Amino acid sequence: MGRIELSLSDDLRSYVDRAVETGDFADDAAFIESLIRDHHDRKLAALIEALEEGERSGVSPRSFDEIVAAARDLTGQQEDWMTDEIGAAIDEGEASGYSDRTLEQIFAEAKAKFLSR
């Protein structure tokens, strides 16, 4: 497991301590992990919403790379899971003469693979 050292203001340290003392979290590490998970979930939800909005909007004049870059800019996503998983689905489609899967199914599969990491 990775280790991070944090410096907090006295006010923030007291806030974390109170959250642990009241039983909201087992310890300060659990509190920080919860914040990181919540942040990640919000970013992922924004990315998924952007993908779904793009799907609803129809065909774009932008290239695939431009769309991926815009989605990353919108959500702050720094990982390459979207490019890798959707790129693999596109490669698979080209190799097999395309499949009957919809974009929604491809995105759902990419999301499931990402969440299983």
What is the fold's blueprint, element by element?
Blueprint: H1 10-21, H2 28-57, H3 64-75, H4 81-96, H5 103-115
Would you kindly provide a written description of the structure presented here, covering whatever features stand out?
The mean pLDDT is 77. Helix content is 71%, strand content 0%. The radius of gyration is 19 Å and the shape is elongated. Helix 2 (28-57) runs antiparallel to helix 3 (64-75) and helix 2 (28-57) runs antiparallel to helix 5 (103-115). It has helices at residues 10-21, 28-57, 64-75, 81-96, 103-115. The protein has 117 residues and is mainly α.
Roughly what is the average pLDDT, rounded to an integer?
Answer: 77
Mind summarizing the main beta sheet?
none
Query: First CA to last CA: what distance?
Result: 15 Å
- Give the SSE string: HHHHH
Count of discrete alpha- or pi-helical segments spanning 4 or more residues: 5
Helix content: over 70%
Judged by helices, strands and strand pairing, the structural class is mainly alpha
Cα-atom radius of gyration: 19 Å
Q: Which band does the percent of strand residues land in?
A: under 5%
Residue windows where pLDDT falls under 50 for at least 5 positions = none
Shape: elongated
DSSP summary, beta strand count:
0
Quick summary of this structure?
The protein is mainly α and 117 residues long.
Keywords, separated by commas or semicolons:
117 residues, mainly alpha
